[in-house]
């Protein structure tokens, strides 16, 4: 089990905060997806899997429908997906993904969070090399297929790590970001039930910090995650093992 597993284990404890935060994030993703690929799930593979993710997160059906309708509304101001990269305190690299209808507001807010917490916002693309962009699929654990065989099948489609989540009885697949569509197509065509999917940035190396340093860095991460325009925050700080169950 490699970096992806360690990343998921750490991230499990700090998902997206509260329920409202989850719904806001997913709603934006669904709207952007429906705008780009059309509002019909049968013709939009990414929308299909986002709707499954929403179901898993107990997002009300009317919220999902509202997010899709927003995408085709004449009055809808399109969201722009913007990434921001910078260093937090003590040299921790932080990658921020946003979806916003006002980039001027968003960049001003993100910059202020970095500045107030002793960090600095860098130029776009300056820290991307420190992370590996992956797609992640959660599927119901198949009963009649060995995981070794499943892994061998999926290697050709770009999956490079597979892990079992015994708590949810799911298999978690990590693959190359560019192979997202091919992996989803294979899973759907071969009868595997996808329960959710997401894109993540896994740090290539992790930096050790002291408990005092961690507290300072986490203040910045929390400020970023609380911003309505922010979708995801990734960093290369090693997690505190004592937080795990």
Automatic annotation (TrEMBL):
- What are the residue boundaries of the TACO1/YebC-like N-terminal domain, all occurrences included? 4-72
Provide the protein's localization. Answer: Cytoplasm
Pfam families on file: TACO1_YebC_N, Transcrip_reg
Name a GO molecular-function annotation.
DNA binding
Predominant location of this chain?
cytoplasm
Keywords of the record: Cytoplasm, DNA-binding, Transcription, Transcription regulation
Q: Does the keyword Cytoplasm apply?
A: yes
Instruction: Decide whether keyword Transcription is in the record.
Output: yes
TACO1/YebC-like second and third domain sequence ranges: 79-237
Family stated for the protein in its record: Belongs to the TACO1 family.
What is the protein name stated in its UniProt record?
Answer: Probable transcriptional regulatory protein MUN53_12335
State the organism of origin. Parabacteroides faecalis
């Amino acid at each position: 089990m490699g970096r992806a597993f360690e990343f998921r284990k750490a991230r499990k404890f700090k998902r997206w905060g509260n329920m409202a935060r989850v719904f806001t994030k997913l709603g934006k993703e669904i709207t952007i997806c429906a705008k780009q690929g059309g509002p019909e799930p049968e013709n939009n593979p990414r929308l299909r899997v986002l709707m499954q993710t929403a179901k898993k997160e107990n997002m009300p059906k009317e919220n999902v429908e509202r997010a899709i309708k927003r995408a085709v509304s004449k009055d809808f101001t399109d969201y722009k997906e913007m990434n921001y990269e910078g260093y937090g305190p003590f040299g921790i690299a932080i990658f921020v993904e946003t979806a916003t209808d006002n980039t001027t507001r968003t960049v001003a807010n993100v910059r202020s969070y970095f500045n107030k917490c002793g960090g600095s916002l860098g130029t776009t693309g300056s820290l991307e090399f420190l992370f590996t962009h992956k797609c992640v699929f959660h599927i119901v654990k198949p009963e009649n297929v060995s995981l070794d065989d499943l892994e061998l099948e999926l290697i050709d489609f770009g999956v490079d790590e597979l892990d079992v989540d015994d708590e949810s009885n799911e298999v978690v697949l990590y693959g190359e970001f560019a192979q997202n569509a091919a992996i989803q197509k294979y899973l759907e065509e071969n009868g595997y039930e996808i329960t959710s999917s997401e894109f993540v940035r896994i740090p290539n190396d992790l930096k050790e910090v002291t408990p005092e340093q961690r507290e300072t860095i986490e203040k910045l991460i929390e400020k970023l995650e609380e911003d309505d325009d922010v979708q995801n925050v990734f960093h290369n700080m090693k997690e505190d093992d004592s937080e795990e169950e």
